[in-house]
Predict the 3D structure of the following.
Amino acid sequence: MATSSCLKLGQKLNEGKTKQIFELADEPGHVLVQSKDQITAGNAARKDQMEGKAAIANRTTSCVFKLLQEAGIKTAFVRQQSETAFVAAHCEMIPIEWVCRRVATGSFLKRNPGVKEGYRFSPLKMEMFFKDDANNDPQWSEEQLLETKLSLAGLTIGRCEVDIMNRSTVAIFEVLERAWATQNCTLVDMKIEFGVNVSTKEIVLADVIDNDSWRLWPAGDRSQQKDKQVYRDLKEVTPEAMQMVKRNFEWVSERVKRLLEPQASGRVVVLMGSISDLAHCEKIRKACSSYGIPCDLRVTSAHKGPDETLRIKAEYEGDGVPTVFVAVAGRSNGLGPVMSGNTVYPVINCPPITPNWGAQDIWSSLRMPSGLGCSTVLSPEAAAQFAAQIFGLSDHLVWSKLRASMLNTWVSLKQADKKLQACSL
């Protein structure tokens, strides 16, 4: 891996308690985020050196951002540059910490007497805090943020931008929550920050997400917590205590790598009644690839060669790989019903509708004999999405792509509405 020394550093743009930000002279619009071996608590009221923390934090952040980017979440992260630094898009940071909570604990209990620790928020509880060390990062309301009319990199933070950050925070938490669940670990709460990319003028997830950013309880047990709260709770900072904190941070940095690994492999098998349906089927395969799902295309007719159709079915049932069959047949659809009646695997009808006979042909996919459970989806892309939703129940990486796609669709609509309103005015 390339080291930070390979890069031509420009001026230092910022230095916080745990990191430094440098311009990159040879990469306009990008910065180097250099972590430090420092751990703090209570706005640096407690501050200690922890050898190796910079590398641990950088590994954690890099893995988390890779997971989110592969899902489709927009972030400032570009690449891990060295053991202790990563390259990111240059952003003007929005001075708000967005806090998302699944379980009530910590400062929330102090601010909300009567709520017991462990209370579960469904939907998630959202809070925001203005970054102001001198005043201990006061909690803000949406109204305060809107009335401040912050302007960063030429973008004024208004209702549209606040709503985008709010929705994005929920989606990011849910993606990471589902990922950590694969390790039997509860993501209790999390804080993140957003910035405005100075080149694109869009809001992206920025800063870092490391073991300072969340609470993690293995098996949902607070006594096993692995996050920075262990350091906050120390009655006395001793070398032995700091070694325990470091072991917890290392545990997280090792486990976080596993979040990038799929939990289950699956595939979609598209059965077309005729090679003339190939273009329709290719759209399904292309959409499947966007979710990271392998897709096989086969030609078989349940009317003209039912024995071969069932042989192909048995071929895919025999290797134990979770499979969703998609039946693509025009005119009289025999593929979907025959497959559904002879396999317990999910079957989706996706008939290629033609202008002349489509209204009549569709009934062979909609009206099934009793005991058959195949669904019918007309859009090739939607058929692939439906298959992805099935696999997403057991594969957090597929689920994350679906969740990010849902977020990005919402953001696009929100931005389109803002643009239209601006034109109307």
Observations:
- The CA atoms of residues 103 and 120 lie 5 Å apart.
- The chain has two domains: 40-259, 267-394.
- Residues 267-394 form a domain with the Rossmann fold fold (CATH 3.40.50.1970).
